[in-house]
Amino acid sequence: FLDTLTTNEKYPFSTPELRTELKHTFWLVGNRVASAKAMYKLLKDHPVFGNGNYKIILAAGDGKPFSDDNGFDEEVKNTAQNEKALDRVRSAIKHHDKTITLSVGQLTTGVTVKEWSAVLMLSDIKAESLYMQAIFRAQNPYVFEKNGHYFRKKSAYVFDFSPNRVLEVYDHFANSLLHTGATGHITEEERFDNIAELLNYFPVLSEDEGGKMIELDATQVLTFPKAIMAREVVEHRFITNLLFKNINNVYNIPSEIRKRINKLADTNEQGKVTTSNKDELSDNTDRRERTQKRITANRNVVFGEKVYGNEIQNIIDDNLADGAPEPGFTNNITSEIQQKITEPIYAKYIETYSPSKSEVEQLKKKHQEKIKLIAEDFVDSQQTTSDQRRMADAIATLIEEDMPRDMVDEREEKEFQNEEKTDMDIIKSKLKTFSRAIPSFVMAASDPANLTIDNIENAVSDADFEELFTETQKSGSYEPFTKDDFRLLRDGGDFEENGEIKHFDGFFEKYVFNAAIQEFEKKRSELQDYLRTTAHEDIFTYIPPQKSNQIFTPRKVVNQMLNILEKENPGIFENPNLTFADLYVKSGLYLTEIAKRLYRGLKSQIPDENARLKHIFERQLYGFAPTQIIHDIAENYIYRGFDNISHDNLKLKDLTPDFKEGIIGNMKFDVVIGNPPYQENDNGKRDDGSANASASPIYHNFIENAERISDMQCFVIPSRWAMGAGKGLKKFTEKMMEDKDIQAFHYFTNPKDVFPDNDIKGGICYFVRKVGHNAPACISVYNDEGIFESERYLNSNGTGIFIPYAELASILEKVQNRTIDLENYNIQKIVSVLKPYGLRTDFLKNQSKYGLPPVQKERLKDDDLEIFGLGAGNKRISRFMPKDYPLPAGRGAVHCWKVFVPYAYGCGAIGEEIPSPILGSPIQICTETYLRIGKLKTEDEAKALLKYLKCKFFRAMVGVLKTTQHSTTTFKFVPLQNFTLQSDIDWSKSIAEIDQQLYKKYGLSEKEIAFIETKVRAME
Question: Domain for residue 417, yes or no?
Answer without folding.
Answer: no
